[in-house]
Task: inverse folding
């Protein structure tokens, strides 16, 4: 009887230990799940590119192998400092910010316009505005990079003829078993498209535009005016015309409208 009681106690002790280990593993899995959700959200924000300009020297993107729960392209060289502070220059660059497309910038450096497209025939709206406000086809050549293999979207882009260059991302394979496969596809497309712009077409500067973006009248003069900052300031990785925090409750409408923020 004593032997049975002893064995029973040992069994109960082992069960408790296993239950504790299960609880610990469950807790760790919950933390990992939360981290994955946060990473997915961050990654989606990173790819909410809208419109940014980068130069060849600061373009270094690594596409990781498709592993479960891994995120997509890692931008190397982006400053981790997130505090906002006014961006000042010691030249006339800032005075050109308020110029419009009607006033062609004195800087005539070629800047490639990369439109990232997939399966939205409505890319026509974005292309129409780019062509409408573009001051010079030579200074701002437009390249539309299409992923997804969507025939209707390809047909729309082809209607522009030699006004734009249409390139197609060749790898349309999926990432089976990976819940972040969509992010991998976006990263793969960005890496391939930027590689085409910098390494194949040999542009030194590229502006990335998403296919649902309506550019403003001063879009081109803004990018041309700020382009020199990429070369002059090594802490700047890209120039953006999009502010994720530019909401009514987060900005001061009375502040200087010509002020830039280094974030």
Result:
């Amino acid at each position: 009887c004593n032997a049975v009681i002893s064995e029973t106690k040992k069994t109960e002790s082992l069960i408790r230990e296993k239950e504790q280990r299960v609880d610990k593993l469950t807790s760790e899995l919950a933390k990992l799940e939360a981290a994955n959700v946060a990473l997915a959200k961050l990654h989606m924000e990173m790819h909410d590119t809208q419109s940014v300009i980068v130069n060849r020297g600061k373009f270094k993107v690594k596409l990781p192998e498709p592993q479960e729960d891994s995120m997509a392209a890692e931008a190397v060289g982006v400053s981790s400092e997130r505090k906002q502070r006014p961006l000042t220059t010691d030249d006339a660059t800032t005075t050109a910010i308020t110029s419009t497309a009607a006033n062609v910038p004195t800087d005539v450096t070629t800047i490639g316009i990369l439109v990232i497209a997939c399966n939205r025939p409505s890319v026509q709206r974005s292309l129409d505005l780019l062509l409408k406000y573009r001051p010079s086809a030579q200074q701002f050549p437009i390249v539309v990079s299409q992923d997804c293999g969507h025939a209707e979207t390809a047909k729309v882009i082809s209607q522009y003829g030699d006004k734009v260059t249409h390139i197609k991302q060749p790898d349309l394979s999926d990432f089976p078993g990976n819940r972040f496969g969509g992010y991998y596809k976006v990263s793969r497309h960005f890496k391939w498209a930027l590689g085409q712009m910098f390494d194949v077409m040999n542009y030194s500067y590229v502006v990335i535009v998403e296919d649902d973006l309506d550019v403003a009248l001063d879009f081109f003069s803004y990018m041309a005016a700020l382009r020199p900052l990429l070369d002059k300031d090594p802490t700047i990785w890209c120039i953006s015309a999009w502010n994720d925090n530019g909401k009514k409750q987060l900005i001061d409408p009375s502040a200087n409208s010509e002020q830039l923020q280094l974030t």
